[in-house]
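Progress against Task 2.4 (sequence-to-structure conversion) is shown through the following example record, which the project officer requested during the mid-term review.
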Amino acid sequence: MGEGKRPLLVWNKDNGWGEIPTRKLAIVGSHPATRENAPYDDPEWEIWLYNEAPQKTEVYKRWDACLQLHKPEVYSSLENWVNKGHWEWLQKDHGKVIWMQEVDPKVPNSVRYPIEGVLDLVPYRYLRSSPALALALAIYLGYEEISLYGNELSSNTEYAYQATNLAFWIGFAHGRGIKLNLECWQSEFNQAIYGYEGELQIDAQFYEKRFDEYERAWTANDKTMTTIKNRLDAAMLERKYDKVGQLTIELQNAALATGETAGAVREAERYMRRSDPISRQEFERVSAQAQIDGDALREKMLHAGGKCEYVWNVWRQTGRMEALNQLRGFTREKVQFAYDMGAQLGIWKENLLYMSEYDKRVTALGGQRAVGQVVESFDR
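Structure tokens generated for the chain above:
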């Protein structure tokens, strides 16, 4: 690596720190899909694990270093949910490096993580997970070849912020000329190329099927909504105050459900009647706007609900017809807002589903097949 290259060091309990010739490193995470594929039987490769993993010897056949970068109150807890014996294990001499935030006198193999040096690699404070910290450390120490196993992250899960962070360091490693072998999480890096591949069209039959399903659902929900409304009218005439309060809530929920199916069926019908190309960006734009509009309607629904509760209390206390008529008016207002809010929810969900379907089809087609699909869609 030239001037910036640092000798790789290994800890030996007899001789202390010493330089080792290998510059091959496998960083192994816990995902079962690929963690057991690491080169445990090849002595040319050094193996790094995380946290409690070295204690799981039936899975991880060998390890040379471990990253335990949590606070002492975490790694020393006797209630560790992964392995309750972890603190006891850390206090034993394993003759191998255990990277920590600071050297812990109670952990014989603890070595301070060189956070300052790692942060000097880039002008950002961008270390948001153990995989990112491990890869950044490996780059800092000068490994020439790095393989990643068992680090399966996904950008559409709760690990999204960790996924983008690890992707950054993967790109940085490539930029430094490091040979990086991605033996896991390959789906993230083998997507269709934006603007070149994958601009396919979801067929009209898909939308038609969605339309049929939601049209039946809307009919059923609308029938339920009408039934509740009739019961509410009867309860109002009979001055069943508590029953009216209960049915008002039921009617609001029914209106939300009915509106949601109405919004979904409307979107399915709108798309199935289209003959022009529909891009993924349109699904994104429509879903984003529906979320904004839905939030605004929610505020209006809650405001109308507050008015309903106020006049319901007046009607219950006085029994006056004027209060009942006001309650009817405010209830209609609240139910309409609930229906409209539900419709926006249906539009939002439906477009998210189309985005997911679009992505699945792009992945299935891949590369030149996706390009071919684009040509075919425009030739029709």
